[in-house]
Design brief:
The complex is a heterodimer.
Chain A lengths: L1 E8 L4 E7 L1 H6 L5 E5 L7 E4 L2 E3 L4 E7 L3 H7 L6 E2 L1 E6 L10 E7 L3 H13 L3 E8 L8 H7 L2 E6 L6 E2 L2 H10 L6 E5 L2 H11 L5 E5 L15 E4 L2 E4 H4 L2 E3 L5 H8 L3 H23 L1
Parallel strand pairs in A: 9-10, 9-13, 10-11, 11-12, 13-14
Antiparallel strand pairs in A: 1-2, 1-7, 2-6, 3-4, 3-8, 5-6, 14-17, 15-16
Chain B lengths: L15 H4 L12 H8 L9 H4 L7 H10 L2 H9 L5 H7 L21 H15 L13 E5 L3 H12 L3 E5 L8 H4 L8 H13 L3 E3 L10 H6 L5 E4 L5 E2 L12 E3 H10 L16 E5 L3 H12 L4 E6 L10 H9 L3 E4 L1 E8 L5 E14 L5 E5 L5 E3 L3 E4 L3 E2 L33 E3 L2 H4 L4 H21 L1
Parallel strand pairs in B: 1-2, 1-4, 2-3, 4-16, 6-14, 7-8, 7-14, 8-9
Antiparallel strand pairs in B: 5-15, 10-11, 11-12, 11-13
Helix pairs in contact in B: 2-4, 4-5, 5-7, 6-7, 8-16, 12-13
The chains are: A alpha/beta, B alpha/beta.
Protein name (chain A): Sulfide/dihydroorotate dehydrogenase-like FAD/NAD-binding protein
InterPro entries (chain B): DPD_II (IPR028261), FAD/NAD-bd_sf (IPR036188), FAD/NAD-binding_dom (IPR023753), Helical_ferredxn (IPR009051), SudA-like (IPR006004)
Organism (chain B): Anaerotignum lactatifermentans
């Protein structure tokens, strides 16, 4: 069992949990992920590591409530435990030889873009952060990002905070404005990563995306997380989760991630019953 | 006087059209009377050909003689003197190609039902005695066992009995390896596997789940930082193969590993669990091994109306156990033999709507001695399915060998070991089971675990 030691609601749908997992904390690096399972009946769900504290033996995850498991996880409080927490999985992001990097985060993806920006900053790399959100209400990690970025650009779709527009607008402007990036790291919804990759391709800038497909074990055993990269089948869990954005078949990934959409909606109904049952058990 | 009946005593089973809708065990096991009667079919041959057919050399005629006498406890003791997991082996071993293939009674008529008798004894013990073993006196040395499938469980059990402090590291959230994620409940109830793991715990074995060795800890850290005196790698062959044909990335294409893991380990068949699985009407399972039979029979139980096995050779070459093929047919699985998939068809929305196959004919025998299939040009046809399960084999996972210096593997990714001791190319590091042989059987993996445990004991005694 893994104990929750800290919890923060970053916005109405995004939650931060700091979880005691000393073995994971000892080895974790930016870009790697964990798989959690809330209780004996839950799915195994991968989440990229947002932060870690080797001395305290804790790992921080930031996630959006999108389905059954993430809602169940978000219902847990400090002091509660979750059943399973395994990692660090996947290959850590490599930063060798970079002088200047643009880190692009979209929505809850900023939670994973942040440790990348922080790691680069600590290595003495110049970091420009472009963070995009739908509106001002869901902006997360603004202060944290500013603390590690040389320049921080906030974009909202509706212009309620920062500049109005998409992250790709800003990225393109910065590149055309003469910024020489050795790499662009883009983390967010699949369409965002796709369009960031399309934006950088004409300029020939290396673009790294972090993929989060459906998976079970995280060790290369189920093949559920397979993605086509450069025309070849790759397993995101062991070959990634970082891949060259110019090579990823994003449309296929989007299609594959939709496999359980209908069932999830159906299960959400029955699941509420289970949550009620759990709540009643806690009260009695 | 021996019972000269030419046929085995039949084992009661759930009726095919009942069992293909539930996950309860298919075969129900012998009663005492049935077991005792079947046991009298054994001629107690002096040269014991059956024993030579068993990878762990179970003392077969001896335990059967005790059943015939009605002393099941004595039978159990003989059985478990060489086999740590009789309830498992009695259910999943391919007896027809091992012990029973050597049985003299099989020359004319059916061989003695050794597997069924083994299962009977193990089940009888569990139902009537069920004593937990005691923790042996500790010798102060520590051994790490990586993985918790059949080879690891056997190795851990033998080492624990010899007084070693054993820690089992399992990547998944539940121990048991392929016995829990792969083999379905209706063939091997998970309570049986759990009981074996509980026995290990009673002997002082610590099982650490959620530990992906090669990631969270390296073999070197296990030895140097955690102070383990030896390591056994029993990580199996878990990496799924795909055919590399068009359409394999469509929604509705699973590896058998994923499909079976969702159903068996993650219990997609029970309503209390959150595990999603595609609601399939028609499923094609590609492959002819036990795993393919398991996947097909699971698909039927999950509610698919049509389930097909698509296999590129003929039934004779199928690697699956006879009993599994027989059970699958009874349950309504349709076999498309000498058929090879060339393409999985897209419904236009990124989902599977069919599988295009090519008819094959048998040519000359290949390296494995099986006649290799040759495609018949222009014989393409389509089977309408909404789900495809690829069950064409697995290979060992590279996570450990890629993070451990000096651990050699062959070009198939199998760890290289000394055949006498099962030691890898690293001193103090042993390996066995599918991680060494590639995908094989439970009993071979157990034999390797046993051999390695003896070699580890020898090595640590002299260290």
């Amino acid at each position: 069992m893994f104990r929750i030691v800290n919890k923060k609601e970053l916005n109405s749908s995004v939650t931060l949990l700091e979880i005691e997992a000393p073995f994971v904390a000892k080895k974790a690096k930016a870009g790697q992920f964990i798989i959690f399972r809330v209780d004996d009946y839950s799915e195994r769900v991968p989440l990229t590591i947002a932060d870690y504290d080797r001395e305290k033996g804790t790992v921080t995850i930031i996630f959006q409530k999108v389905g059954l498991s993430t809602n169940l996880l978000a219902s847990k409080e400090v002091g509660d435990t979750i059943r399973d927490f395994v990692g660090p999985l996947g290959i850590a992001t490599e930063y060798e030889g970079y002088k200047k990097v643009a880190v692009v985060g979209g929505g809850v993806g900023c939670a994973i873009a942040y440790p990348q920006a922080k790691a680069l900053h600590e290595l003495g790399v110049a970091v420009d952060v472009i963070a995009g959100f739908r509106n001002k209400d869901i902006v997360i990690l603004e202060e944290e990002m500013k603390a590690v970025a040389d320049n921080y650009y906030l974009m909202t779709d509706d212009g309620t905070k920062g500049e109005k527009g998409f992250v790709t607008d800003k990225l393109k402007a910065l590149i055309e404005g003469g910024n020489q990036y050795d790499a662009v790291i883009a983390i967010g919804p699949i369409p965002m990563m796709k369009f960031v990759s399309l934006t950088t391709k004409p300029f020939g800038i290396k673009t790294i995306v972090s993929l989060n497909p459906i998976m079970i074990d995280g060790t290369g055993m189920c093949g559920g997380c397979r993605v086509t990269v450069g025309g070849k089948i790759k397993f995101a869990c062991v070959d990634g989760p970082d891949f060259d954005g110019h090579e990823v078949d994003f449309d296929e990934l989007m299609n594959r991630n939709s496999i359980y959409k209908e069932q999830e909606a159906e299960m959400a109904k029955t699941h509420i019953c289970r949550m009620d049952k759990l709540a009643k058990e806690l009260i009695h | 006087m021996a019972n000269m009946s030419l046929e085995k005593i039949r084992m009661p089973e759930q009726a095919p059209d009942v069992r293909n809708k539930n996950f309860e065990e298919v075969a129900l096991g012998y009663t005492k009377e049935m077991a005792m009667e079947e046991a009298t079919r054994c001629l107690n041959c002096k040269h014991k050909p059956c024993v030579s057919g068993c990878p762990v050399n179970v003392r077969i005629p001896e335990f059967i003689a005790e059943i015939a006498k009605g002393d099941f406890m004595a039978a159990y003791k003989i059985l478990t003197s060489t086999n740590a997991l009789p309830a498992v082996c009695g259910r999943v071993c391919p007896q027809e190609s091992q012990c029973e293939s050597k049985c003299v009674r099989g020359i004319k008529g059916e061989p003695v039902a050794i597997g069924r008798l083994e299962r009977f004894v193990a089940d009888w013990y569990m139902a009537n005695c069920d004593e937990m073993p005691e923790k042996p006196v500790q010798n102060g040395k520590k051994v790490a066992v990586i993985g918790s499938g059949p080879s690891s469980l056997t190795c851990a059990s033998d080492l624990a009995k010899a007084g070693y402090a054993v820690t089992v590291f399992e990547a998944f959230h539940t121990a048991g390896g392929v016995l829990v994620y792969g083999i379905p409940e209706f063939r091997l109830p998970k309570a049986i596997v759990q009981k074996e793991i509980d026995k290990l715990a009673a002997m002082g074995v610590e099982v650490m789940t959620n530990m992906v060795i090669g990631k969270v800890l390296s073999i070197d850290e296990i030895i140097e930082d955690m102070g383990f005196d030896a390591v056994f790698i029993g990580t199996g062959a878990g990496l799924p193969s795909f055919m590399n044909i068009p359409g394999e990335a469509l929604v509705g294409v699973y590896s058998a590993n994923e499909y079976l893991t969702r159903i068996n380990l993650m219990k997609a068949y029970l309503p209390d669990y959150d595990t999603p699985l595609r609601k399939s009407k028609a499923v094609a399972v590609v492959g002819g091994g036990n795993v393919a039979m398991d996947a097909a029979r699971c698909a039927k139980r999950m509610g698919a109306e049509k389930v097909y096995i698509v296999y590129r050779r003929s039934e004779k070459e199928m690697p699956a156990r006879l009993e599994e093929v027989h059970h699958a047919k009874e349950e309504g699985i349709e076999f498309h033999l000498l058929r090879n998939p060339v393409k999985i068809l897209d419904d236009g929305k990124g989902q599977v709507c069919g599988i295009e196959c090519l008819k094959m004919e048998l040519g000359e025998p290949d390296a494995s001695g099986r006649r290799s299939p040759v495609p018949i040009e222009g014989s393409n046809y389509v089977i309408d399915v909404d789900t495809v399960v690829m069950s064409i084999g697995t290979s060992p996972n590279p996570l450990i060998r890629s993070t451990t210096q000096g651990l050699e593997a062959n070009r198939k990714g199998c760890l290289v070991v000394n055949e006498e001791t099962n030691q890898t190319t690293r001193e103090g590091v042993y390996a066995g089971g599918d991680a060494v042989t590639g995908a094989a059987t439970v009993i071979l993996a157990m034999g390797a675990g046993k051999k390695a445990a003896a070699a580890i004991d020898e090595y640590l005694k002299n260290k």
